[in-house]
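Problem 12. The chain below contains 335 residues. Write out its predicted structure in token notation.
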Amino acid sequence: MTTPALDIAVVGATGTVGESLVQILEEVAFPVSTLHLLASMESAGSSVMFAGKKLKVREVDSFDFSQAQLVFFAASPAVSRSFAPKAIAAGCAVIDLSGALDGATALVPEANGERIAELARPALITSPSAGAVALAVALAPLKGLLDIERVQVNACLAVSEQGREAVSELARQTAELLNARPLEPRFFDRQVAFNLLPQVGTPDEQGHTAVERRLVGELRQVLDLPQLKISVTCIQVPVFFGDSFSVAVQSRNPVDLVAVNAALEAADGIELVEAGDYPTPVGDAVGQDVVYVGRVRHGVDEDQQLNLWLTTDNVRKGAALNAVQAAQLLIKHMA
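Solution.
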């Protein structure tokens, strides 16, 4: 049965994630009737290519959401909070990538795609943060093998997690340092080029940042393990695109590495790298549609611990593709 084409809006169409989302809609031949590209007043008026045509980007402030049936919000939390209620009131299904909307179902198709059947209309879906997506894709196949007690994550986040301005800042800082010019940080509060910043965002009273708390909450929801103990430290690394994660999974029972490798090898959305090798964001993940998993091993002296290394394209796989895959599930459910 042919899926009927939909009128779709993309809010934040000129951002790094929005541009990737539009590109993927075309790549997967998503059934689009009319595509409305929306952005702030500053970005309105520019053009984006889609299906061989230049589409003009319009201001989201003046858009009539009754013209769309499905809306992707690939903008800031403030934009989602301002305009998503209008889209829902107009009867649109909403897929939000900001994590700002209360009551939305966090969906990672490879991990909890069955939850699509529970959604009422109009559907309200959160496409989780790129980190939560990568971790959920890697950990979901292991739920039946391990009695997971705790997960500890060191998340090495690319600057593109914070948008185009952060990418430009890393490029500018790198050029200034390589040319022996004085460095004046602008977007970041200090030098990020050739450096590591062990804090992404402003910490709360307990010392945790919003991006860390969001990752914990979304991962628990997607894995359906609300009491799972998760420790996360997010580190800003001088990488343009591609997040990487050092993960330690503590199990209550001994970890069978043969069974773990078999489960990862068979899982959708994962590329398991053979023992002795390891994946990197630049050499492997960027531009790809999977989560790369490598360095699968026990703890140094503990067979109840599983250590993993993950890397993935945060903009493409972690954000844009996950949102499009959620939309593909949704239209099948709506049919």
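Discussion. The two ends are 9 Å apart (CA to CA). Students who got a different answer should revisit the alignment rule from Section 12.3.
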